Hints:
By secondary structure, the protein is mostly beta strands. It has helices at 75-81, 141-146, 262-266, and strands at residues 34-40, 49-55, 110-121, 124-129, 132-134, 171-173, 176-179, 184-191, 197-201, 206-213, 231-232, 234-237, 241-248, 253-259, 270-275. GO terms for molecular function: copper ion binding; oxidoreductase activity.
Amino acid sequence: MEGSHTVQNDYESLDVHVGQCFAVLVTADQEPKDYFVVASTRFTKREVTATGVIRYTNGKGAPSPKLPPPPVGWAWSLNQFRTFRWNLTASAARPNPQGSYKYGSVNITRTIKLANTAQKVDGKLRYAINGASYVEPTTPLKLAEYYGVADKVFKYDTIPDDPPAEITKVTMEPVVLNLTHRNFMEIIFENRETAIQSYHLCGYAFFAVAVETGQWSPEKRKNYNLLDAVSRHTIQVFPKSWAAILLSFDNCGMWNIRSEVWDRHYLGQQLYVSVVSPNKSLRDEYNMPEDTLVCGVVESMPRPPPAYT
Length: 309
């Protein structure tokens, strides 16, 4: 699952949300003939179905023309999420298998709650996170930061870590969170809408420790899977529900957190996190390549000296 080895379970149906991927083993132990593999949309007004055929070489008979209906409702999907568990003895060089990182015993240094909303701004639909709808600046964020002129392009931490219960106003701006290198973070995705959300974090894998209905509160931490939650890159958030992830921001750079639903991403449901190396070391981040094209406010500025040594 998204690069992680999971405990092997048997499934007749898999819920794959936007941006997610699975590898599956299909056991050919049925009566030799043709069988359908069915993919169908869920949680949409109009159901679309596609079929493929698994064919035994010595098969006799066509697949049944009657397709089984997909599972109904998203409670089934939520319950299936809870069956996905990390295989603690698989992968990695011995004696350090996947489960050698005890993420459940690391102290949380910062909690950020990200709440999505859909509202009109000047008569046009915009999607927002914590009341801010992302717009691209004319100068790339990382370029401005590398040249030391970030203050001319964007401001850090313009959205609150804990959004208000009701978001009535939406601003349109570049959104960049300033995170401390190697801090162990808790991020709560709170879905205040009636459509299922899917979030992706670039540059990192995170531990998907909980997905539940209702509103998140600190007391909900007692329900986290702090032993064998899967390390992955994308997580779904059901309607009027929340999802919690844990991770260490140990990869320096400028990284995107976004909705994997493309129209939401395009219309503002995304932000960036900046993780700067405090040691200015090439072990943490490379310097900007010499042939990098520049634009915006830095276009006429002299090339800064290498930031990392």
